[in-house]
Amino acid sequence: MTSQAHASRLIQFGDFAIDPHAGELFKKGTKIKLQQQPFQVLVILLERPGDLVTREELRERIWPADTFVDFDHSLNTAVKKLRQALGDGTRKPRFVETLPRKGYRFLGTVKGAAKVAPAPTPKRSAASKSVGRVFEVRGGKEKYMLAAVDQASQKERDRLDAANDDVGFSLLIAHQKVLLLPSGLKVRVIEAHEPGLMLEVRILEGEHYGRTALLTLAQLVDAPQGERPPVASFFSARS
Predict the structure, then answer these.
(1) How many CA atoms lie within 13 A of 20 on its CB side?
(2) Domains recognised in the chain with CATH numbers
(3) Mean pLDDT value across residues 151-173
C-alpha cells in the first residue's frame, strides 16, 4: 500500500480501506481476509452509501439467473462474514444496516475514489456450478466414505491424519464430527467453500438424513436423472 497509484484506488471508511480492483480489504494498513461474495456485497453497498440496496439487486449483481443456489442462505452468510471482517454488529451497526425484508444500507462515511467501480461478475468454477445439484457419493473399492461435518472438523481430521492419531480419529467418528457415508448416497450441494475445493452438501437419505458434510467434487458423481430421494428414507432407517 505504498505506491501512489495504488493509494489512489483505495476507498476508505473508518479504519478500513478497500481496493475494489484487487479485491482486497485493509484495516489500518493490514490486509484482512474476506471471501469473494462478502467483498462483492461491500463494494455494491459502497457504491451508494446511505441508500437502500435491495436483496433483489444483490441477487442480480452477485448471483446470476443461471446460478442454482439457496439465495437467502448465501446472502445471509455473505453479510454475516462481512460484518465479522468489519467487527460490525446487528443491534448497533456502524457500517452495514439491515432493513428487514428489504435489503441493506451502508452507514459509514466513504472517502477516496470519487466512484466505486461496479462489483465484477464472478467467474464460476466447476465447484460453484455444482451448487443446487444432486449427486451420489462416488463408489470405488471402498463401500463407504468418511466426510467431516464442517470446516473445523475437517481441520481436526487433517491434523489427526498427519499425526497418525488413530485414537483421536476414532473419537471424531464417535462424536459424529466425521460421518461414514455409503457409496451411492444422494446429497445436494448447498455451498462451494473458497477456494472452491470443498463442497458443503446436504444428505438427502439414510441414517444421516438432513445433516451437512464436506466433500470434494471428485468424491461425487452425477445422480441418475429423474430419480428423487424417497422422503420416507429417514424414517425407514430408524424403524
Answers:
(1) 22
(2) 4-121 (1.10.10.10), 128-236 (no CATH)
(3) 87
